[in-house]
């Protein structure tokens, strides 16, 4: 093996990446957190970690990454968004299909404006967990119309 100081930039980058991958893989820690930006080799690391394993799951918070990761990790892992995985688990528990309407709160907000005569920011109520707000009942009743 060529010593790192004699390598070209490309080989030196691969060498350093492999050192980091080896350190992560050989770590005895049960849980590992990898924080890395785009193009730093996370998918390469995942491929190495998943080698020889079965029934694995890779979660991403970014919808756009699901397709790319699915191709890169094909056969090594099921790739899903956190929301997709949560919905799948809920469907298993409830033994029924769970329908998601991502724009429902915007539609019901428009309903509130027409029916109540004023604007209700449902997203703010949900994000701040204002469960006792009187408008939650209105939202639930309007939401039943769509299911």
Coarse morphology: elongated
Strand segment tally: 2
Q: What does the average pLDDT come to?
A: 90
Question: Strand-residue fraction?
Answer: 5-15%
Low-confidence stretches: none
Query: How would you sum up the major sheet?
Result: 2 strands, parallel
The total number of structural domains is 2
Strand order of the largest sheet: 1-2
**Helical residue percent?**
40-55%
User: How large is the radius of gyration?
Assistant: 23 Å
Order of helices and strands: HHEHEHHHH
Derived from helix and strand composition plus strand pairing, the structural class reads: mainly alpha
Number of helices: 7
Write the layout of secondary structure elements.
Blueprint lengths: L8 H18 L15 H9 L6 E4 L2 H10 L5 E4 H13 L9 H12 L6 H6 L7 H11 L2
Parallel strand pairs: 1-2
Helix pairs in contact: 5-7
